[in-house]
TrEMBL record:
One of its GO terms (biological process) is methylation. InterPro entries: SAM-dependent_MTases_sf. GO terms for molecular function: methyltransferase activity. Signal peptide: none annotated. This is Class I SAM-dependent methyltransferase. The lineage of its organism: Bacteria, Pseudomonadati, Pseudomonadota, Alphaproteobacteria, Hyphomicrobiales. It comes from Pseudorhizobium halotolerans. Pfam families: Methyltransf_23. Keywords: Methyltransferase, Transferase.
Length: 223
C-alpha cells in the first residue's frame, strides 16, 4: 500500500485523492471553457503530466481537445517536444509573447507564477493577449505555505537533492528557480490591477505533498 492510499483510501478508486489540486483546478476551468474558445497553456514545459498522470486522472485534466485552439508557450525550447498540442511557441525570458493582442479567451498557468522574475512585464503581456472578459486561471504555491518557506530556507543549489528525495518521480528538467513574486493575494491584485482585472482568487489546501515515501512525514505535513 502506498503512503497516499494509507492516508486516503479513495486513491484506489481512480488513482487520486479527494483533495487532488489538479482535479479542483481543471473542474473549474472546464466550467469556464467553451468549444469556440482559444486557450493558451503558459509555461507548458515538456508536458510532464502527460507522462505522470494516470489515465483516469488525465480524462479529467486533459482539456486540450475541447477548445477551438489549444496553444502552448514556454521560455524553454523543451515545449517544442510537448505532446499535448502541435501549436507550440517559444520566446526567451523578457521577450514579448509571440501572440497578437486579444488572442485568447483563457490562459492557464499551472505552477508557473512562482518562477516569474519580472512580474510587471509578464502581467502586462498576459493582459495584452487576453481578450476582454477573458480568464487567467493559475495555481501557484502560497508564499507563506510550508513548502514555499522551506524552499526559501534551502540554498537553491541544494533544491535538486531535496526534491529527488521528497518527490522521487520528479525529473531534473522539471525543476526551475523559484522567486515567489506573484504568490500572495496582495501581489496578484497589485500586478493585475482593477479595473482591467477582477479577482476571484482563493487559498486551497491540496493535502500533503513532498513527503517522499515517508508515512510519518506525510502525517506531519497533513497535520
Amino acid at each position: 500500500m502506498s503512503v497516499l492510499e494509507g492516508l486516503f483510501p479513495e486513491v484506489a478508486a481512480g488513482g487520486f485523492t479527494r483533495m487532488e489540486a489538479r482535479i479542483q483546478f481543471y473542474s473549474r476551468v472546464r466550467a469556464l471553457l467553451e468549444p469556440n474558445h482559444h486557450v493558451l497553456e503558459f509555461g507548458a514545459g515538456r508536458g510532464k503530466f502527460h507522462y505522470l498522470e494516470s489515465d483516469p486522472l488525465k480524462r479529467i485534466t486533459d482539456i486540450s481537445r475541447i477548445p477551438a485552439r489549444y496553444a502552448l508557450f514556454d521560455v524553454d525550447p523543451v515545449v517544442l517536444e510537448n505532446p499535448t498540442s502541435e501549436d507550440r511557441h517559444v520566446a526567451a525570458v523578457g521577450e514579448s509573447l509571440p501572440f497578437e493582442d486579444d488572442s485568447f479567451d483563457i490562459v492557464l498557468a499551472w505552477m508557473v507564477l512562482e518562477h516569474i522574475t519580472d512580474p510587471d512585464f509578464y502581467a502586462s503581456e498576459l493582459g495584452r493577449i487576453l481578450k476582454p472578459g477573458g480568464w487567467l486561471c493559475a495555481v501557484t504555491p502560497n508564499k507563506w505555505g510550508y513548502f514555499s518557506v522551506g524552499a526559501r530556507l534551502i540554498p537553491e543549489r541544494l533544491h535538486g537533492t531535496f526534491l529527488r528525495r521528497l518527490v522521487p518521480h520528479k525529473k531534473a528538467e522539471d525543476g526551475f528557480e523559484t522567486v515567489y513574486k506573484l504568490n500572495t493575494l496582495a501581489a496578484l491584485e497589485r500586478h493585475f490591477p482593477a479595473p482591467d482585472f477582477s479577482h476571484h482568487s482563493y487559498y486551497y489546501d491540496p493535502g500533503p505533498g513532498y513527503f517522499g515515501r515517508s508515512m510519518t512525514l506525510a502525517r506531519i505535513i497533513r497535520a
